Amino acid sequence: QVTELVLDNCRSSNGEIEGLNDSFKELQFLSMANVELTSLAKLPTLSKLRKLELSDNVISGGLEVLAERCPNLTYLNLSGNKIKDLGTVEALQNLKNLKSLDLFNCEITNLEDYRDSIFELLQQITYLDGFDQEDNEAPDSEDDDDEGDEDDDDDENEAGPPGEYEEEDDEDDGASDLGEGEEEEEVGLSYLMKEEIQDEEDDDDYVEGGDEEEEGK
């Protein structure tokens, strides 16, 4: 059931991946930064994996394993590894869904026309080291979406209470108005009864008469 797993700084004893197997079939995000990996040979089959973080390891080759075991990768971070030439990266051509690749601090970045060569070699990718071919920075789409959702929730929460309070206020106003009216009516009737003013022709006369006398008082 695990969909995200972070194993950063969990040092490998022999440069191989340890403790992972095919039972992690729901895994979508895996991070193994600074684990001293030298090989990906023991990477299990993770068909749902979308993002793989392998920065700051000692990987120098064997990248063809990624296409075999994680065919649906969209993001791959290999920064800080021992990748030196285009031939090593060529193995990523079979990752058809790969959109973003990071190779920061790898020796390959020192090659002449490094960026153009990688974009030509891996035509499926949109972003290399965080920028596209026109040097536009890659958006943090997931973060933006999360923040947007949170903002929307906040707006809804903020908008809700005032409306409720207004309704309650209206109800209170209505209740208070009614209470005052009843009180005035009670005062008027008691005043009329006290003065023994009885007019049986029209009930409205009682109220009107009471109001006029009350105003006079």
TrEMBL record:
It holds the Pfam family LRR_9. One of its GO terms (cellular component) is cytoplasm. GO terms for molecular function: histone binding; phosphatase inhibitor activity. It comes from the Eukaryota. Residues 130-217 are annotated as: Disordered. It is found in: Cytoplasm; Nucleus. GO terms for biological process: chromatin organization; regulation of apoptotic process. Keywords: Chaperone, Chromatin regulator, Cytoplasm, Leucine-rich repeat, Nucleus, Repeat. The keyword Cell inner membrane does not apply. Belongs to the ANP32 family. PANTHER family: ACIDIC LEUCINE-RICH NUCLEAR PHOSPHOPROTEIN 32, ACIDIC LEUCINE-RICH NUCLEAR PHOSPHOPROTEIN 32 FAMILY MEMBER E. Multifunctional protein that is involved in the regulation of many processes. Histone chaperone that specifically mediates the genome-wide removal of histone H2A.Z/H2AZ1 from the nucleosome: removes H2A.Z/H2AZ1 from its normal sites of deposition, especially from enhancer and insulator regions. Not involved in deposition of H2A.Z/H2AZ1 in the nucleosome. May stabilize the evicted H2A.Z/H2AZ1-H2B dimer, thus shifting the equilibrium towards dissociation and the off-chromatin state. Inhibits activity of protein phosphatase 2A (PP2A). Does not inhibit protein phosphatase 1. May play a role in cerebellar development and synaptogenesis. This is Acidic leucine-rich nuclear phosphoprotein 32 family member. It comes from Emberiza fucata. The lineage of its organism: Eukaryota, Metazoa, Chordata, Craniata, Vertebrata. The gene is Anp32e.
